[in-house]
Amino acid sequence: MNPGDSAVAFTGVSKSYGDFRAVEGLTFKVAPGSIYGFLGPNGAGKTTSLRMMLGIIKPSEGEISVLGSPSAMGVRERVGYLPEERGLYRRMTPLETIVYLARLKGMDAAPARKRALELLDRFGLAAFATSRIEALSKGMAQKVQILATIAHAPDLVILDEPFSGLDPVNQQVLEELVEDLRREGHTVLFSTHVMQHAERLCDRLLLIARGRLAFEGTLDEARARMPQTIRLKTTAGVAALGALPGVVKIAEDGHAAGEFELTMQQGADGELLLRTCFERGIQLARFDMSEPALHDIFVALVGAGAETADDRGTAR
């Protein structure tokens, strides 16, 4: 791995606390200008990995590169970080907050104020620019913190559980913001338990479990590891369906007559199965060859006990 061609690179990174290995042998790289998803169940090692990336804690083994530096501390003015634990000065205003944090990252006062006003207007907070943070709703305050994270136009934006606490409308606004950052050439790395956001946004995904890499690649590459599932409705029997090419398992719906779920062999062609049904005179009232959702892939690769926000709320 050549760190020079990556916004972030981990090479054999491990972190131990006594005999406990929080992270073990983690290797991955994040391409510049991409959106990278960092996913994993509770206690998987995501937060530890982010803290090593940021230079908050040091790895026990391995090498880290962030924008060509051994940690984000060496390039702090080029990095924006939104921690999972939110915190703002409640007696400051959104305008003051964004300007203050932008100046800490090296911006001059006048450009910082101009940028802050532009961001507040763009994200529907212009009317609250001079209100105290303590007077804002939780969602509004979180938007202010997100805007403060990107006000200095960082090359790399690291977001830890950014969608937590936002209502569906503001989650959509944040998704659009993340996509805008990529279009403008910024690199975005975010951790999340909400699989739908990662599925829609990410160029590449990393799944981590028990401190080890479970998967790294694109969504299509992850789907390729999953056997395809086909749902259909037919008057044909189990024997006829079992003789179709690529079928390895058949499950019959006990609540709806004629409804079946077929599990296919790895790499099997669902369209071939459909053509074969027509050739053999198997009449179909329904044929659903949908791609597996990221949540299903997550559970298959990480384990059925893995908690995600899709089914267990706000697991950390």
Walk me through what this model shows.
The protein has 316 residues and is α/β, with parallel strands linked by helices. Helices cover 33% and strands 26% of the residues. The strands form three sheets. A six-stranded mixed beta sheet has the order 5-6-7-3-8-9, with helices on both faces. The protein has a four-stranded antiparallel beta sheet with strand order 11-12-10-13. The longest helix has 16 residues, at 168-183. The two termini are 30 Å apart. Mean pLDDT is 87; it is low at 305-316.
Tell me the span between the first and last alpha carbons.
Answer: 30 Å
| Overall mean pLDDT | 87
- Give the helix level as a range of percent: 25-40%
Low-confidence blocks of residues: 305-316
Structural class: alpha/beta
| Shape estimate | elongated
Question: What is the N-to-C succession of helices and strands?
Answer: EEEHEEHHHEHEHEEHEHEEHEHH
Count of β-strands: 13
- In terms of DSSP E residues, the strand content is 25-35%
Estimated radius of gyration: 24 Å
Strand order of the largest sheet: 5-6-7-3-8-9
Count of alpha/pi helices: 11
Please outline the major beta sheet.
6 strands, mixed
Question: Topology of this protein?
Answer:
Elements: E1 8-17, E2 20-30, E3 35-39, H1 46-54, E4 61-66, E5 79-82, H2 94-104, H3 109-122, H4 138-150, E6 156-160, H5 168-183, E7 187-191, H6 195-201, E8 204-209, E9 212-217, H7 219-224, E10 229-234, H8 238-242, E11 247-252, E12 259-264, H9 270-279, E13 284-288, H10 294-302, H11 309-312
Parallel strand pairs: 3-7, 3-8, 5-6, 6-7
Antiparallel strand pairs: 1-2, 1-4, 8-9, 10-12, 10-13, 11-12
